Each structure stands twice: as structure tokens, then as C-alpha cells.
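Hi there, hope your week has been kind to you so far. No rush at all, and the record is pasted right below.
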Amino acid sequence: MTSAKTVNVLGIGGSLRAGSQSERALRIALDGAAELGVRTELIPGPELVLPFYDPAARDRDERAVRLIDAIRRADGIIVVSPGYHGALSGLVKNALDYVEDLREDVRPYLDGRAVGLAAVAYGWQAAVTTLEQLRTITHALRGWTTPLGGSINSAETKFDEGGGASDEKSLRTLRLIGRQVAEFAITRAG
């Protein structure tokens, strides 16, 4: 890393099941970012159990505060969602709704941040439509999606506990997504 500033990449996603396939995919993408020397942070699915986002509520619980503070500090973000019935999970969508709390920040919403996206679903249709929805939400939140996104069919690709996968192409794709987020963040910080 050439910048004196510490560059932070935040990973958000997974499912309620610790060590889920989508969480393992997220960890691989974060490892790709870390290869470039950035600091990474992970907020996995079990830590995304938040009250439904309510824009009228003034108080946030400690988990929501942690999420918003982590997004605020992040120079780049990686989001991986499981695909449920052709759509992103409610857990991930609710977490992304909390980005609205950044509307008055100097960097509102996801402005100026690279956002790498991947979807993991049991079947291609759900994986592709979930990725498409993540891209739409990211654009609405002013984020810069990386050129490469990942649609992973968990009927064909299995992730293991050690950071590997049964499909080398999926590993390369996820690492490259992480690297693209880190490269963009490093360039912006420079």
C-alpha cells in the first residue's frame, strides 16, 4: 500500500447460520482485499440481527450503531448475500437500509466507496437476480460497484472452513472482487 492513510474494507453479509456458504464467500473476498495490505473488518450474518430499520426512530441499539460506525469508517465495502427465493435475504436488506443514517454525513450514504458484491444461492437464477438487486441497491445508495460481481451457485460450489472452495473459478472471482474494492479504496486514499 502506497498511502500513509490506513485503508479500511468492511465485509457485510452471510446468513444467520455461523459459517454459512455466503459468509465463507465473504471471507474469501475480504482475504483478496487484505492481500493488498488494507485493514479488513467483518460483520457477519449473526451480527446483523437488527431491529427493522425505522427512519423515524431516533435511538439505535448497539448492533446498529456498530454497523453504521463501521460503514462510516469504511473506504470500501464488500456485501455478500444469500439468495432466498430469487432475492437477497431480509437480513442483508435490513442492514443496508441502515445506511440511510449516513444521509447527513460528509460522505453521505456509500458515496465515494467501492462496493464489491456477490450472491450465493442454490441455483443460477436466484444467484443472478440477487446480485442484480444488490447492484441496484448499491447504486441507489451512491456506491461505486466493482466491475466484477459474483453469482455463485451453491449447488455446484461448496466453500470449506479453511477458506477454500470446490470451484477454483469461484475462488478467483471472490478474491478479485476483494482486490478491486481495495484497489479503488487505495487509489481514492492516495
Summary: The beta strands are 8-13, 39-44, 76-84, 87-88, 114-121, 144-145, 150-153. The chain has five helices and seven strands. The longest helix spans residues 168-189.
